[in-house]
Every structure is written in C-alpha cells, then in structure tokens.
Amino acid sequence: MKKVVFLLAFIFSFSLVSQEPGEDKWGSWHMYFGTNRISEKLSIHSEAQARYYEQLDNFNQLLLRTGLNYHINPNAIATFGYAYIITDGTFNEFPGDRDSKEHRIFEQFILKNKVGKLGFEHRYRLEQRFLNFGERTDTQHRARYRLQVTLPLTRIFFLNFYDEVFLNLQNEVFGQNRLYGALGFNVTKNLSVQAGFLKNHFPSAHFDRLQIALFYNPDLRKKED
Asked: Which residues, 6 or more positions from 134, have their beta carbon under 8 angstroms from its beta carbon?
C-alpha cells in the first residue's frame, strides 16, 4: 500500500515540475457535481462548472452538463447526456478562434473496483461536439479515458488523483491531458468537498488550475412509511 501511494505522489509531483504553464497566472475551476437517485436503477447527473484564467477573474468557460445514469450494478454505470458550453477562446485549443458556444452529446461508461483501501474508477466517454464560432460552425468527435484513484485517510478525509487523456477522432489525435490531485472532505454521507490542483496539457500550451469541487448525491426516491 505504501509503495502504491508513493508511486502516485511521485508521478504527480514530477508532472508539476516537468512543464512550464502556458500562462504566468494560476487559473481556477469552481465545480458542482450531483448524482440524484430517482429509482433503483436510474439517477440524474447534474453538473455546473465556472472556469477562470485567473482566480475568480478573467472568465474562460461556463459548462453545464446533465445526463441519465443507468446503474447496471454498484460498480458499473452507463450514461447518456448533454452539455452546453460557453468559452472565451483567448487561450483555447482552437487557434485563431476567440469565443464559442457548444452543444455536446456524450455517452459514458464507468467501472469501479477496489484494491485494498484504494478505490479505482475507469471512465470511458465518447463526445459529439457541435461548435459555433459565430462566423463558422464545426462538428468534432473525441474519446476520453480517465483513471481515478481514491485513498481514504480517515472516515472524513481522503485523497483523490486522476489522469484523463482526450483523443480527437479527426485531425491531430492528441487533444489534451489532465492530471489532478486533491484533498477531500466528507461533510455528510451524501455531501463532500475537494480542493485540488490540475495540470491541463494541450499540444501547444500548459495551464495550472486550482479546483474547488462540491459533490452532492441526494436520494430522491420516495420513502415507504
């Protein structure tokens, strides 16, 4: 167990010093995620993110996402969903484009397993992206894979790490890579908070992002008297 934790910490710390950021200020992402259980097999995903080039300043992106989850079993979840994204493309992955609005459809499959105290989550996602840059429109497709590892420290505190790669299904294959590490706090059974650091690597730029995330997973099923 100690060797695994040391390896994860080493990989994360090496990434922090291996690349210079694409800008000289740390940005911030402020996020909410919810899994709203409505039946034994179904839940609704809710999500909102506000992203900034600086700390709560110089707006970058607003992302709103929802979806219907089908719980195959406690360790396997399939999702079909939709997202709406508004982006100021000043430092975007689309060279020459400033602002964009995007409608996105996605299909997702999550697998979970445990090895000792470590919780592993594999997330596979396909996205169909319908982009509007004002003077032109574009349709793009990409695949994403995220490996997430969670380590409980106590009943309240935990560590969370993930690495996610984005692969374009047209043009240049590599889209971006996100490496993340955070300290988490379980407020209640259904509510938790994470504060962490993200390295966001694009082919031509690298960004440092502080993240604050709220996770709220209420059970909306009617209780029998």
From this structure: 99, 100
Distance CA 56, CA 58 (A): 7
Classified as helix, coil or strand, 86 is strand
Q: Which fold has domain 2-216?
A: Porin (2.40.160)
pTM of the model: 0.86
Q: What is the pLDDT along the chain (225 residues), one digit of tens a residue?
A: 554 444 444 444 434 444 444 456 788 999 999 999 999 999 999 999 999 988 777 888 999 999 999 999 999 999 999 999 999 876 555 455 568 899 999 999 999 999 999 999 999 999 999 999 888 899 999 999 999 999 999 999 999 999 999 999 998 999 999 999 999 999 999 999 999 999 999 888 888 999 999 999 999 987 755
Domain ranges of the chain: 2-216
